[in-house]
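PROTOCOL LOG
Step 1. Enter all chains and additional molecules of the complex.
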Amino acid sequence: MMQHVDTESLRRSAFEHLWMHNADWAQVAEEGGPLIMVAGDGVRVTDSAGVTWLDAHGGYASVNVGYGRTEIADAALEQMKRLAYFPQGATTEALVWLARKLAEISPGSLERTWPVTGGSEANETAVKMARAYHRRNGEAGRYKVISRKGSYHGATGGVLWMGGGPGRRPDFEPAYPGMVYAPHPGHYRCELGGRDPSECALLCAKAIEDLIILHKPETVAAVIGEPAASGSLVPSGEYWPAVRDICNRYGVILIADEVVCGFGRTGKWFGMEHWGVVPDIMTVAKGMTSSYLPMGAAIVKREVAGAFAGEADLFSQALTFGGHPVAAAAALENIRVIEREGLVSRSAEMGSYLLEGLTALMGKHSIIGHVGGLGLLIGMELVKDRSAKEPFPPEAQVEDMLRRKFRDRRIILVCGPSGFKLCPPLCITRDDADQLTTAVDEVLGELASELAGMIS
Ligand SMILES: Cc1ncc(COP(=O)(O)O)c(C=O)c1O
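Step 2. Run joint prediction.
Step 3. Record the structure below.
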């Protein structure tokens, strides 16, 4: 039985007191929001007015096992009742078992886990570790970090500056020192003019090598990148092995940001496994607990972690909530659910099914410029002219239109000025996928007729 919720007084209180992430409270109020979610089950959530939504964004590309898993709640409750925290200098059973499990499912010698509370912290930790690792190897001059333009690695003070050049975040200037930006191997619009995904991948990998040479290898600590992103941001097969080789050649630490890709999102446990590449440090969060509780980690190769053995070489960092035993218990149970239900292969299977359905829409809607992805990390890019790959101008207000139209259909997904992303929970069924494909078909049909004057 759903409890009665006074939606209007909740909305008023949110308007007065809540500072929502990624949203302007006045605009949210104007649109009749915010939506206040009160329950969830599988791929669906229910709001305070009793309306059920299909969450095609899986929380924040993070609720991998889906909503309503009482076994995760039970594991967390059990741990909290037994031992909610621990004295400094000690650790807990749940965290030790989790670290062992992570070593078991992570590729290669990624065997030692530094626990944190989310993706930004995981990446901050990885960058600090890369710099400290070089210092322990007598290369204290290595501090620069190469990231790829257009990527996102988090919101905190250091990682905020990865993935974008100066001027991108003027509110938070000055930028963090040592940030270097490489092209992203997004092949639909290859920044380096690659004529196909393979050429784009090789050019973009070579650009990383050129940057290392330009900056001098003895100043470069790390390269960081997410294995794949949605849409055309899945690099061709040559890219990651080439980047791995380049990092080896110049003694640069390779950090794989698996915050989104990890825990089955792309149809493998971890995204880099698609290319048989083992990074030096792998950062995870989101799907690690399927967001039932906040947790992340930097999982480190034995060879890299080894540099920190011994009191004099200690990695000097501590976070009060890093490795919280209740979150660790939730993470362990989450991994068990993924294993028990075969959700990694399900992600591959349902991702292909959904992508096939969406790709078929290209024959019907000329405004689809590109659709692509890996597993259940899918994106669609819309254009006013397919042959010229020309995007809609800002005055077309594509983002608003998409958001409204999907909202009318009780579907939640992330829309942008040039398209949208789908990252549903991995337990999505064929019927759910069909519902999404039908909704996309209808939305694009409406959009095309409303913007008909602009389409070439
Ligand atoms: C690829 C990637 N890395 C890192 C982060 C930051 O994670 P968090 O929001 O948990 O700090 C995100 C968040 O969306 C992400 O998409």
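Step 4. Note key features.
Residues 430-450 form the longest helix (21 residues).
The chain has a mean pLDDT of 95.
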